[in-house]
Amino acid sequence: MTQLFHLQECSSTNDEISKFLLYENSDFIGLSTYNQTKGRGQYGNTWAAAAGKNVAYTLAVKAQSFVLSDFIFNYYTAVVIRDFLANLTDHDVKIKWPNDMILKNKKIVGILIEKKKINQHNYFIIGAGFNVMQDKFEEISHAGSLLTTTGKVFDMDDFVLNLHEFLSEKLKNIPSEQDIIDQFNLNLFRKDEISVFEIEKERQNGIIRNADEKGELWIELEKDGLKPFYHKEIKLLY
């Protein structure tokens, strides 16, 4: 059963979604709002968005439906959302490891995937904040929106409906683990390009080589050679 609900305002769609998982067969249940007051990002970061101009969206799917590891599930979700945005905008969208979406060097989407037990079932709670129609980002130099990066005006209701249908369908037909890893790496932001990284408050040049099945990012560093990193162990400066 696939359903989509909408709230005029809520603190966090990832938190509120549990109220909509009422039945035994609750699966592929989506929730959106255009005014999320307490959005969360990866690892406790906050996700602030202008009211009425952006989309907070969460999709709850039963974890038992997937044989993928949590890392590969995260990769696949990022690939699917990237594909949706690339199709929608007709632009090349990149995945900034582990799962931010970058368009024209601007972050337009942040994703937070959590695993929760609700009504005796384990769920993947896929939350994503989409900057859609916001036109000013004074304090966040790397942030942008679909409007600022493409110049196109998007209908918010159509955007959410199409997103929900696209993501739900793609999650019903999972490719192989290797295909997922290959697609993730194919669209990895700044892969095989010289970039500047910050490691323990020190800056160093390096080249992103690939993300692996364990959720690690392999970077060839100027001083330290090829090394794997988990999220928050290294920061890409761009």
Automatic annotation (TrEMBL):
It comes from the Bacteria. Pfam families: BPL_LplA_LipB (PF03099). One of its GO terms (molecular function) is biotin--[biotin carboxyl-carrier protein] ligase activity. InterPro entries: aa-tRNA-synth_II/BPL/LPL, Biotin_CoA_COase_ligase, BPL_LPL_catalytic. The keyword Ligase applies. GO terms for cellular component: cytoplasm. Residues 1-175 form the BPL/LPL catalytic domain. Keywords: Ligase. The keyword Ligase applies. This is Biotin--protein ligase. It comes from Chryseobacterium kwangjuense. The lineage of its organism: Bacteria, Pseudomonadati, Bacteroidota, Flavobacteriia, Flavobacteriales.
